[in-house]
Amino acid sequence: xxxxxxxxxxxxxxxxxxxxxxxxxxxxxxxxxxxxxxxxxxxxxxxxxxxxxxxxxxxxxxxxxxxxxxxxxxxxxxxxxxxxxxxxxxxxxxxxxxxxxxxxxxxxxxxxxxxxxxxxxxxxxxxxxxxxxxxxxxxxxxxxxxxxxxxxxxxxxxxxxxxxxxxxxxxxxxxxxxxxxxxxxxxx
Amino acid sequence: xxxxxxxxxxxxxxxxxxxxxxxxxxxxxxxxxxxxxxxxxxxxxxxxxxxxxxxxxxxxxxxxxxxxxxxxxxxxxxxxxxxxxxxxxxxxxxxxxxxxxxxxxxxxxxxxxxxxxxxxxxxxxxxxxxxxxxxxxxxxxxxxxxxxxxxxxxxxxxxxxxxxxxxxxxxxxxxxxxxxxxxxxxxxxxxxxxxxxxxxxxxxxxxxxxxxxxxxxxxxxxxxxxxxxxxxxxxxxxxxxxxxxxxxxxxxxxxxxxxxxxxxxxxxxxxxxxxxxxxxxxxxxxxxxxxxxxxxxxxxxxxxxxxxxxxxxxxxxxxxxxxxxxxxxxxxxxxxxxxxxxxxxxxxxxxxxxxxxxxxxxxxxxxxxxxxxxxxxxxxxxxxxxxxxxxxxxxxxxxxxxxxxxxxxxxxxxxxxxxxxxxxxxxxxxxxxxxxxxxxxxxxxxxxxxxxxxxxxxxxxxxxxxxxxxxxxxxxxxxxxxxxxxxxxxxxxxxxxxxxxxxxxxxxxxxxxxxxxxxxxxxxxxxxxxxxxxxxxxxxxxxxxxxxxxxxxxxxxxxxxxxxxxxxxxxx
Lengths: 188, 572
Prior knowledge:
The complex is a heterodimer. By secondary structure, chain A is an all-alpha fold. Chain A has helices at residues 2-12, 16-38, 41-57, 68-90, 117-126, 131-141, 147-154, 158-187; one strand at residues 113-115. The two termini of chain A are 33 Å apart. The model of chain A is unreliable at 91-110 (pLDDT under 50). By secondary structure, chain B is of the alpha+beta class. Chain B has three domains: 48-249, Clam (outer membrane lipoprotein receptor (LolB), chain A), CATH 2.50.20; 267-386, no CATH class; 404-570, Immunoglobulin-like. Helix content of chain B is 23%, strand content 37%. In chain B, 34% of the residues are buried. The interface between A and B is large, with 58 and 45 residues.
């Protein structure tokens, strides 16, 4: 916590080392969250890229009041939500000019993120849930954020956050039912 | 396992790794943005406004300033004006006002202003605006007040001996300087101070010096310079017996002020505390570089800049307090440095993380090797011959002061008696007497043995016998070679034998009176037994010896110390 405050402070003063340290410290958490929410490696990479750029651009007015990890996870979830909305728009029928709003083949990044089997399984199952439920399940279980903190970040009530989590978990259990058990048996 | 646990475990086991290519892309863009928005750090540093708002840093700093310059804390333990005359105004004073400068006197060095009445000091520091500290040495407490923000903080000092009257304490320091066998006083002659002629006296002992300058005409002290270890403090603009309002020294929190409490252990700082402070100073306050210096004066000079940066951190009160306490402990390591000899700092311009660059080294007490701290803050034990630099010429862990002659009539020394039970049934006694001071020009030293009926057999100086004669029961005069004493050969050995039958308690439970040959500032009794003797030790010895009695460490002298058992018994 104190280390994060110092890292933010030094980053604000232009320290490249401090910003690099923040990235190295939290990149895996953010990528995993983005991957869990979007089930798309290229998108996960873009989201984390955008989160870091926003973080740097907002450093001047930034005051860390809670945990840096929580802040960055919330930013990632917000960016992922925006991406998800935009994606839904892009997936609608093509425009009058016949051009798709989606990513073109030329823009597709190389396969540069490697997910293990469990993450592939998880993100596949999460993709079955509405985004609002995915988000709460991941922030709570992966980000270890309280329902209250999630509710505050999402500007919803804590009860809403809890019920979305509950619904999300119920559906995940159904989806994962046999696969999770099988996967865990293989890994233990 | 519950289904929720399965999902939790699945998330826990999920892993994603990014390639170097991803990292490079994200970091390159983020760092480029960082570069574009970079503002020179100077433009961000604060001035007085920031200083006023960063209370914990200010308080931590003020607390350190307070303990940094308490005179004589460690001492508890030729013109028309003489030293005795020069200290007289101090000895007579009931109140005092003075300015204190730590380190080199220049316009950038903060000046501490003290008003002293009884056990209380009202202290202000000229680079900490709007703040005043009342120090109560009797209760070891500081009340720090900030007028602008109406904040009051009590700082309880742990480890500080109770000093009911600071001026009395100061007086004792000067009396001790005059009388102590440990100190040597030199006349420094005359020099001009603030346009007037002043005469100087230097009182010194290993690792401590006090220089007193007094007006050559009036005899009033005008300047005191105090060197303790590697800290140098100057007291100037001295005024004595100035009437002062008692209300200025109140330890009560004024009405309308908020109240907080802190605690500070003056002597509890460790090497780890010092290293943590180095890390903070580099990381937080130095943009990754270590500070120019780590001495008390360096810290005082940098307080303003540190406070400004501290404000920018936007820490919570708890975090501010934690950081402030860490900085305190860091500085206390240097302020009450417990190592042997000097410490060496070479961290200026070194970047945090430079694992090959030594930045600080010192020798812990009773250690043969040095501790060397490197730029990445790892520590290694290094033999003296492998240090990064040779030691300073004046760096001697133990400087011996030779025998000195003084105006008093008595000889003073330190004594260790070694009693050794022999196979022939007797006990051999060797008393090692180290002479510190003696009357000027007098070479005949009277000594008194603890048992009048036991004859003195020999007196040796570096194995050379000295002449002595009996002048009464147990009383002898020993002829001293003054030139050899002045050259540093000051350890005399006195030898005699006693019979256990003649000792109090007899051979069954032998005891002895404890009496030194001359007035001494320390005395110890050590006892051993030859394996072929009729006695054995009652306790596990250290080497050959057990130590039934020790006394000393103070500046006062003594000759009679009561009696004690010898810790031997007839062999079972």
